[in-house]
Amino acid sequence: MSWTKVVAITGCDSGLGWALAARMARDGIITVPGMYNGTATEASHALKNLSAHPFKLDVTDSESVNEFSEYVKSIVKKNSNYKLYAVINNAGVMTIGDYEWHTPQIIENTINVNLLGAMTVVSAFLPDLRKSAQSGVKPRIINVASHCGLHPLPGFGTYSASKAGVLAWTKALHMECVHDNIKALAFIPGGFVGSSNLLKNQLLNGNAMLEYMNEEQKALYGKKIRILNNYLKQACNNTRFDSLNDEKIIETFMKALTDNNPKKMYKVESLRYKFYYNLFKLPLPDTIYKSLIKRFLKFPEV
């Protein structure tokens, strides 16, 4: 008997999440996008027009996650040929700046969304994924990670920690789920900040950093924070929800989703990323290493 794939994906208000949800819906996959901003937005309506099933979701709220899980389950139950096939953890936030600048709230929110939120979602769906596996489906969990999780960079400490945690947890989850015939894998999409709202809170958080600092820290870092935030202002502007159209990113994700025997990790890496990240692995003196970092990030100097 033929069956139809049902996929739940988080963080679909814009950028990567919206693009992946739209692609899956266009391909006939029953797609349930989690929308932090709710289902009355232009992004949500656009996904509805593609026959997706948007649902409001805050991955940091366990009750919201359970409601999302129950909604997905109800869709499966109403259609005898529907099977839960994949759960995709895409929801993410990022604030750029030295670790000392980060307020406790910024740190906690980054970890809560990027790591703990993904864990909460998987906990809610594992029993249903196991049920799918028992019926002959080859279900999978896809956790969106980052190159920063593989090789942390200065200015991305908290974000790197959250994504390194995602990678470590995914590896453990992969081994734990093997006996249940559930695949857990990581997807690293590469750079796409300019086509997303990943940095939409950068300016707000930059101001919060300055307010939280003592006078000594403000004197030391204030100018640097303002210059960095002015530089990042363009990336912080509200980008259209459907701006991401990088086919390499989307096609690599579709391989992670549909490969019969998926790899443990799928990675999109431009030649520039490959060049610099391979250099970063070398045991270089700090002075040379810092110079390479500056060239790679292209952040303004104070």
CA-CA gap between termini: 65 Å
The whole-angstrom Rg is: 20 Å
CATH architectural name = 3-Layer(aba) Sandwich
Classified in CATH, the superfamily is NAD(P)-binding Rossmann-like Domain
Number of helices: 11
Contiguous uncertain segments of 5+ residues: none
Could you walk me through the main structural features you see in this protein, from its secondary elements to its overall organization?
The chain is an alpha/beta fold and 302 residues long. It has a single domain (4-198, 241-269), classed as NAD(P)-binding Rossmann-like Domain (Rossmann fold), CATH 3.40.50. It is built from eleven helices and seven strands. The chain has a seven-stranded parallel beta sheet, sandwiched between helices. Helix 2 (42-48) links the parallel strand 2 (30-35) and strand 3 (55-56). Helix 10 packs antiparallel against helix 11 (286-297). The radius of gyration is 20 Å and the shape is globular.
